[in-house]
Design goal:
With 423 residues, the chain is an alpha/beta fold. Helices cover 42% and strands 13% of the residues. It has 3 domains: 35 residues, no CATH class; 133 residues, Aspartate Aminotransferase, domain 1 (Alpha-Beta Complex), CATH 3.90.1150; 229 residues, Aspartate Aminotransferase, domain 2 (3-Layer(aba) Sandwich), CATH 3.40.640. The chain binds pyridoxal-5'-phosphate. The site of pyridoxal-5'-phosphate (PLP) has 14 residues, from helix 5.
């Protein structure tokens, strides 16, 4: 068992030295905490933590944020939010069920809907709340929900909370999806348009065709494509001309929109139903006015951000090509998210530390965000990277290649297999 004694300060603060309830946890909780502290951190990682960064130096290059278009510090957005806060006027702290026709949130939902070419839209507290609320509203007990194995955890959570039947299919494998549909019948198909761990794109046209042939509903999570892809940033579904053929698009607005909210495109009729079916919409409070003010300004900026989008895609191309030329296998993906995948956690920890020691900060993804032996450092690129920074990232990756024995990584071995899938 792990050490269960409370810190000395807690003891002296307690009358008579009795343990505070927070230190008296039962064995079934300690057993789980032991898994983390003893097995993973202590034994597997030698006392280090996968996600705890070294202190960054002044020239640190961050490729760990999802602010793809570098708008988080944009003056017009900060001003819009500050003006709203300065104006005052207490928000009604309540859930979005109670929002009235013509409210600021409803007007912004209409703007997002027009932007994405849908009849209506819903703003939620987060991308997580959008996906959980949507899936539990459309997929009830027993309904088969076909999820790409790399679909975001929030989509799986929605299936669990709706007591629907999760039917996984191999990543981006349309043939496997078809076989699963033939076996289990029509239901709901769930994909990300750009996948969050490796930047792979969904083969959307083929998935749409299968949804139509099988009479299934299609849900596409556009979190990593909204703002960055498509006409004026309207997403990958719009870019491919499929807006009228995808039933629901969802997105986290904590990526290119650099705020905290989620979004769903839908019909006006569905919206009315959702507000009385989605538990996050009913039982959790809605967005605040200054948050809406941020997104109003962000939407205006993002519509006009073609140059930033072009720069983002240029940077992604250059870094992907450069990494491939050095010998990294980054062929699983094609977009602005790049996975450097050693595989086992201790090796990914070593990669993260080697990058950080040279001033490059990526984000570690490990179980439960990846399969257990597929941990990786994720580089999320942005439109503001300078040529010097790009060159530095590439030269650092070249410098650590031998030290980290990249040819023995799980991703490198996968590249050598003739029939390698991009799963
Ligand atoms: C594809 C995808 N969907 C949904 C979410 C959840 O978004 P949020 O952070 O807004 O809850 C994320 C965030 O990691 C994501 O990457």
């Amino acid at each position: 068992m792990i050490e269960t004694s409370p810190p000395a300060t807690a003891l002296t603060a307690e009358a008579g030295g009795a343990l505070a309830a927070e230190h008296r946890l039962p064995a079934f909780v300690h057993a789980r905490m032991d898994q983390h502290y003893v097995e993973r951190v202590g034994k597997l990682l030698g006392g280090e933590h996968m996600h705890v960064w070294l202190p960054p130096g002044p020239d640190a290059i961050y490729v760990a944020s999802n602010d793809y278009l570098c708008i988080a510090g944009e003056h017009t957005l900060l001003q819009a939010q500050a003006d709203c806060l300065r104006l005052g006027g207490a928000d009604l702290l309540m859930s979005s069920v109670f929002l009235q026709e013509g409210s600021r949130q409803h007007r912004l939902e209409q703007q997002f809907a027009r932007f994405m070419g849908s009849e209506d839209g819903l703003l939620t507290q987060s991308g997580w709340a959008a996906n959980v609320g949507l899936l539990q509203s459309i997929a009830g007990p027993g309904v088969p929900v076909y999820l790409d194995m790399m679909a975001h955890a929030s989509l799986w959570e929605g299936v669990t909370s709706g007591q629907a039947k999760a039917v996984p299919f191999l990543h981006n494998d349309v043939g496997h999806l078809q076989r699963q549909l033939e076996k289990h019948g029509p239901g709901v198909i769930v994909v990300d348009t750009v996948y969050s761990t490796n930047g792979s794109r969904c083969p959307l046209a083929a998935v749409v065709a299968l949804a139509e042939q099988s009479g299934s509903i299609l849900v596409a999570d556009e979190s990593h494509a909204l703002g960055t892809h498509g006409p004026h940033g309207a997403g990958l579904v719009a870019q491919l001309g499929l807006s009228q053929r995808v039933h629901f698009r969802t997105a986290s607005l904590a990526k290119a929109f650099a705020g905290r909210a989620g979004l769903i495109t839908c019909s006006t009729q569905f919206k009315g139903y959702f507000l009385s079916a989605s538990r996050p919409a009913i039982f959790s409070s809605c967005l605040l006015s200054h948050e809406l003010a941020w997104f109003e300004a962000a939407l205006a900026l993002i519509r006009q951000a073609d140059e930033r989008r072009a720069a983002l895609h240029r940077n992604a191309r250059q870094i992907r090509d450069g990494l491939s030329a050095i010998g990294y296998n980054v062929s699983d993906g094609s977009e602005q998210i790049i996975a450097l995948e050693p595989g086992p956690e201790p090796r990914t920890l070593a990669l993260r530390k080697a990058l950080e020691a040279r001033g490059v900060f990526g984000a570690v993804f490990c179980a439960p965000a990846t399969p257990r032996n597929r941990s990786l450092v994720r580089l999320t690129l942005n439109s503001g990277l300078t040529q010097v920074e790009i060159d530095t990232i590439l030269s650092v990756c070249a410098a650590i290649y031998d030290e980290l024995d990249v040819p023995t990584w799980s991703s490198s071995k996968r590249a050598l297999r003739p029939a390698a899938r991009n799963a």
